[in-house]
């Protein structure tokens, strides 16, 4: 039985909030662009995080949302501005001086900034040294296309389940798998709000999308099985089979006729999306 439900009114942003989301989103995307030339073999993920942190704080005069986030019983808060997830790390990789990038690694940098009280959240893959294996390259391309296919179904009147359904169908048709334990999320003055955006599931289910909602889509795509495990540091999520994983994330605004991407970058061709 399929069930659907309406969005609670607090998830619908005002025009003033939407403008603040645009600013925060633009800043988050600019961090991902700024860091690109720094990603080279021999550089540590700690150094990359430090450059991002200082740019967010000193140049953007914004707040890195991940720094100090997520303390829980038995788990210390995250201590860095970015998550840096290399190869078989699915998400929430902790920047480290000991993690030195090498030619052919695939790296995800996930950045969330707070500006004027609102969050912008985005991530992308980088190929260290510019070249990698055919498999790793295809995995990154499939993860990005999975995000784009999810974005394409977003419009007022669609359902949250439509997003996961289209992503799962595409990823599995490419003989890869979709991570189940982590999902996209509503975002605004709150970092992780309702609704959860699962990257798998069934169309015509879940919350109905309405103009003015803002949320992320952030599919994690694995080369092998979808199952993950979390390391002893309580943050780093890795694939259970230690095969590669890739992810892309945008923050989005639902419009009456489609979608506005709040975290666009100049390296993307976004002409297929109607706002
Ligand atoms: N940016 C991540 C997301 O996409 C969340 C990272 S939380 C952290 O939702 F604490 F690990 F940084
Ligand atoms: Co997110
Ligand atoms: Co993120």
UniProtKB/TrEMBL annotation:
A UniProt-annotated Pfam family: Peptidase_M24
Essential cofactor(s): Co(2+); Zn(2+); Mn(2+); Fe(2+)
Cofactor: how bound: Binds 2 divalent metal cations per subunit. Has a high-affinity and a low affinity metal-binding site. The true nature of the physiological cofactor is under debate. The enzyme is active with cobalt, zinc, manganese or divalent iron ions. Most likely, methionine aminopeptidases function as mononuclear Fe(2+)-metalloproteases under physiological conditions, and the catalytically relevant metal-binding site has been assigned to the histidine-containing high-affinity site.
Residues annotated as binding a divalent metal cation 1: 110, 121, 249
Record-annotated Peptidase M24 domain positions: 19-256
Enzymatic reactions: Release of N-terminal amino acids, preferentially methionine, from peptides and arylamides
Sorted UniProt keywords: Aminopeptidase, Hydrolase, Metal-binding, Protease
A GO molecular-function annotation: metal ion binding
EC number: 3.4.11.18
GO biological process: proteolysis
Top-tier EC class: hydrolase
GO cellular component, one term: cytosol
Residues reported to bind substrate: 92, 192
InterPro entries found in the cross-reference section: Creatinase/aminopeptidase-like, Pept_M24, Pept_M24_MAP, Pept_M24A_MAP1
Sequence positions that bind a divalent metal cation 2: 121, 185, 218, 249
HAMAP family the UniProt entry points to: MetAP_1
Entry similarity comment: Belongs to the peptidase M24A family. Methionine aminopeptidase type 1 subfamily.
Quaternary structure annotation from Swiss-Prot or TrEMBL: Monomer.
Its job: Removes the N-terminal methionine from nascent proteins. The N-terminal methionine is often cleaved when the second residue in the primary sequence is small and uncharged (Met-Ala-, Cys, Gly, Pro, Ser, Thr, or Val). Requires deformylation of the N(alpha)-formylated initiator methionine before it can be hydrolyzed.
Protein name according to UniProt: Methionine aminopeptidase
Natural source organism: Acinetobacter boissieri
Gene that this polypeptide is encoded by: map
């Amino acid at each position: 039985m399929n069930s659907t439900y309406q969005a609670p009114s607090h998830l619908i942003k005002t025009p003033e909030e939407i403008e603040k989301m645009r600013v925060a989103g633009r800043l988050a995307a600019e961090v991902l662009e700024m860091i690109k030339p720094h990603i080279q073999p021999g550089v540590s993920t700690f150094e990359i995080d430090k450059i991002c942190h200082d740019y967010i704080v000193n140049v953007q005069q914004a707040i890195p949302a991940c720094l100090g986030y997520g303390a829980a019983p038995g788990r210390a808060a995250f201590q860095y501005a970015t998550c840096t997830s290399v190869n078989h790390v699915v998400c929430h990789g902790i920047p480290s001086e000991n993690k030195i990038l090498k030619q052919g690694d695939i790296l995800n940098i996930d950045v969330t900034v707070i500006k004027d009280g609102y969050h912008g959240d985005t991530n992308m893959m980088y190929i260290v040294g510019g070249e990698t294996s055919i498999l790793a390259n295809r995995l990154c391309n499939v993860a990005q296309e999975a995000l784009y296919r999810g974005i394409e179904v977003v419009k007022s009147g669609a359902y949250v389940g439509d997003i996961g359904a289209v992503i799962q169908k595409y990823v599995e048709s490419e003989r890869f798998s979709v991570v189940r334990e982590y999902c996209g999320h509503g975002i605004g003055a709150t970092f992780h709000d309702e609704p959860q955006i699962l990257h798998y599931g069934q169309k015509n289910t879940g919350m109905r999308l309405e103009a003015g909602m803002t949320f992320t889509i952030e599919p994690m795509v694995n080369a092998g099985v979808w199952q993950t495990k979390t390391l002893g540091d309580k943050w780093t999520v890795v694939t259970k089979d230690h095969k590669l994983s890739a992810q892309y994330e945008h923050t989005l605004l639902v419009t009456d006729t489609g979608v506005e991407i709040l975290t666009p970058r100049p390296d993307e061709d976004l002409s297929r999306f109607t706002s």
